[in-house]
Amino acid sequence: MSSYQPGSVQTRPYVDPTPLPDDIPKVQELGATSGPLKSAAFFIGAYCKEYNEDFMLCKAENRDPGHCLKEGRRVTRCATNLINKMRENCLSQFQEHWSCLERNNQEYYLCRKPERSLNTCMFEKLVCILFCLYVYLPILFFLLSIPAPLTDWFDLL
């Protein structure tokens, strides 16, 4: 006699053996662990911003996992492209940063020194500042448009 187990408990993850349709482009998986992904997260967010937004809009539109496969593949392709560029141009800094993250329980605050060298390399070699400004410039303009606080109560009169 067997004991009761709820359906949510599985011994191994479910993998659908059905191949994807031909109209969905084939993309290799990223193949990176959490350390490199977390190390590159801010750059992926800036570099793949439009693809990520399309994917999130698609997911909000329809909760069916098959509905957004094309958008998900575009995000994966973009992230793969960026990580390959990071490996080509800033390999030692990238490895140093993600290794630090893996040694320190994925905590950013313990890896600021390697993060600084990675950021410097990315800004110098990949001109990531353009992508980062594209993401953060609207926030900067908003913050600059806020009026300065009053310095004296006399200004109220």
Automatic annotation (TrEMBL):
Residues 1-11 have a biased composition (Polar residues). GO terms for cellular component: mitochondrion. It comes from the Eukaryota. InterPro entries: NDUFA8 (IPR016680). Its main location: mitochondrion. Keywords: Disulfide bond, Electron transport, Membrane, Mitochondrion, Repeat, Respiratory chain, Transmembrane, Transmembrane helix, Transport. Residues 1-23 are annotated as: Disordered. It is found in: Mitochondrion. The chain crosses the membrane at residues 126-148. GO terms for biological process: mitochondrial electron transport, NADH to ubiquinone. Belongs to the complex I NDUFA8 subunit family. Accessory subunit of the mitochondrial membrane respiratory chain NADH dehydrogenase (Complex I), that is believed not to be involved in catalysis. Complex I functions in the transfer of electrons from NADH to the respiratory chain. The immediate electron acceptor for the enzyme is believed to be ubiquinone. This is NADH-ubiquinone oxidoreductase.
